[in-house]
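Form 12-C: Joint structure prediction
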Amino acid sequence: MVGVMVRMKLAILRNGSSTRRLVGGAVGLVLAVLTVLVSVLAPPESVVGLLATVLGVWLVCWVVGPSSGSGGDESLRPEYFALEPVPLRTLMAGLLASSFVGVTVPVTAVASLSLFTLAIRFGLLAALVALVAVPLTVVVIVLCSRVFTAMIGAAMRTRIGIEISAIQSAAVLAAGFSVFMVHQAVSQHTDVFAMLWNEGVSAPYSTVALALPSGWGVFAVRAAGEGSPLSALGALLGLLAFALVLLAVWGVLVRRRVSSPTTGSARGGRGVTHVLQRFLPSGPTGAVIARELRTWGKDPRRALELRVALWTGVLVCAMGLSVGMTFMIPLAGLIMVALAALMSLNVYALDGSALWQTLLSPGAERRDVRGRQITWLLVFVPISVLVTVGGIVFTGQDWAWPWVAAVLPALVGAGAGLSVLFAVLWPAPGPEPHRHGGSPLASGDPSGQFTVLFPLLLVCSAPPAALTGLGVFSGNQDIVWAAIAFGVVEGLLLGWGLGRVAYRRLETRGPELLGTLRWGWDATAGRSVEQTGQERSEGAVGEAGDEEEWALFTRLERNLDTLSSRSGAALAVLGLTFWLPLYQGTASLIGILAGADHPSWHLPLHLPGPFQLPAAVGMLLLGAVMVGAMLRILFRALPERPPGPGNDDGSESADPEPGRTGTAR
Amino acid sequence: MTPRPPAFELYGLCKRFGAKQAVDHVDLTVPSGSFYGLVGPNGAGKTTSLTMAVGLLRPDSGGARVFGADVWSDPLRAKSMIGVLPDGMAMPERLTGRELLTYLAQLRGLDRGQVGERVDDLLAGLGLDEAENTLIIEYSAGMRKKIGLAGALVHAPRLLVLDEPFEAVDPVSATVIKGILRTFTDGGGSVVISSHVMALVEQVCDHVGVIARGRVLASGTTEEVRGGHAGLEEAFVDLVGAPEPVKGFAWLA
Ligand SMILES: Nc1ncnc2c1ncn2[C@@H]1O[C@H](COP(=O)(O)OP(=O)(O)OP(=O)(O)O)[C@@H](O)[C@H]1O
Ligand SMILES: [Mg+2]
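Section 2 - Result
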């Protein structure tokens, strides 16, 4: 049975798309190798604490990743085997073994090898201990993830469970943001990375890292190396016992899921949404808003995402207050809005093929997109504004007003526009809402979308922030007002314009989106490029008048529409990396001008004196070229009209397509 | 007399999935006011053809017209005249039955009074009034079919395209649905259904189209398609070709 399940998983992997796995595997492998390098290269005094911390981060990612993302790897579900006459023990062994097939576990195993490389530095006995610790650590990490995801899945059947899991995810996110901001604040004065590297993680934190299950292996290795084999043995036995406990808990959860696989519904939601609904217009857009408000209230996945965004903002405030870094509090609302955009970038995929009703109602595409945008604004913005304004008033930080006034509107507009645009253009399809089985969390995995949208949001809020900075630091009140006006106008333009791009796209390529949502990207990837080649020539005739009026948006639309997979990949890579040289260049320039003596990870500052300035400028130029390349892809003018058939049925161009689909898989 | 455009006209529809030609030049004409049954073995291409014909799946070639309005080049006019019940697609799952129908009615721009009246009628008529406060995701298979049918009717279309509307529906509800659809065609509306139940098709449909392996094997009035056979079932088996009779599996004895 175990062998059969592993073969099933292999077959599923074989029939799925490989690009995702390749990219994910490559990134993961790089991180794993970096982990090993830490264990090899870090100075002896700090290496234990560092490695324990890094492995702790691996553990946290494993535990939080699946439940905040897509409900974990659901390719083999326990309920598939509910009717098989096999004991639960075999079923779990099979599930566990099959979850080791794929890229994530091997990558984690490579990262855990760092225990062994660390042990080599400690001697023979430590190396022997590591031989046991490495597999145990991997198993414990994987089991932690499985148990946690299963617990969340079970908890999601109740309202309080949703709340608790939202708070957990939000706590991790808030901690991340806070660490980032604290780092930014502290690194004004010192080089945090160098300090960590040389002096190690300071006492309370390294103790916490060692106390996490992921740190027990490190502890055992160090104990063995320092000549206390008994503590080493104790730590190893502890790992083993913990693994067994996890197995037992997981067994209970799997059994419960197999025997009661129906989704419980998150009831209620009669509160705010119900009151709001009375004030909605009874027209089509009002109907969409009512539907969306209901769904935000009742779909456990949306409810979770909503709460993660809100709780993160609240917790950032709380952390700011508790460590006395009150400058973070006015920013909490901004973080909420950014997270709200991230959390709702997959709404179409979450609703699955329900899109057909929109496509079959005349003119409903525009209303659907606008309705979703308005709902997003209603659900997320008032509370973000409240948190930020309240925070500023409460902590008396008047310096924050101009920044928030300029950046918040821009961010709100960008969030309202970008999230719905992503939802239409780049969904992460998952199981259909009426088909997902025992896990109410099951959904597509939008982590690729996250990594692109987040920098985009930063870029959108950069111009008003920069203008405000200019005004505030030069003491020119007019510039501050201009920055606020700029932020408001930018927000309005982005929200309105990107929404327009989204619904126009839905109008022209709705059936393709529906196909993607029903059957996944593989089913449609081959064709859209092929077919749109000729639609481009039709569109050129039909929209010639429009092209004048909305030149930029129309072009953006058409170019996104006809994006070849090569330019798509280029766009993704550029989008992910373009800010690096810009950031490096700017930071280095400031460093050079201000005479900073901590090069940190700003590469140009590591060069000998005379080369620093040219290198920084070069970085800036490189960034500019990358931005230019992206803009070129997005806004390139219409290419020469191909002499191809100006027909209306497209049978000619569809001919070479089967081969194409074949190779695309 | 100028010929009235047929209610629904599928012309030259083709669709290929990878190496498989799922629909191969399907031409069908549904006369106005007729009750049209589409039959064919599993995987014949019925669902694919209907999905393309209503505008939810882009055909490789060909298209469809609703009362003369082309679904792909004049979608607004075509879509305002049809009501569709697709097979196996999601709905806004977190709405109750009443909320879903209200949503669909408002989306079509009906005014408040009309919305209330039609939603009440549909819920009561299809026996869903007890379940009106249940979320769609908790509906049984038959209830999903019924609420889907109600959604297809709520804007009073002139043409109904229903993919397996009687599947999983209990006999009493099936009789109710048949009654509703008959009244609809008697009033001048047109209906296309796909089904596997020959007796039902023979009983309710006045026109039949037979599809197998993506091609139309026969189409016309029920009498024409039945031809010299005793019933539609025999005609169907004759057209599609009976498989080798399987007497049972040796190992199952
Ligand atoms: N998304 C898809 N990808 C690949 N092949 C598909 C897809 N959808 C349908 N097909 C294939 O197209 C053919 C026709 O399918 P279709 O669903 O139209 O059949 P049907 O006549 O409705 O069958 P049934 O009576 O079982 O509902 C089948 O062979 C099916 O395998
Ligand atoms: Mg079918």
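Section 3 - Comments
Chain A touches chain B through 49 residues (CB under 8 Å). Confidence is low (pLDDT under 50) at residues 261-270, 524-549, 640-665 of chain A.
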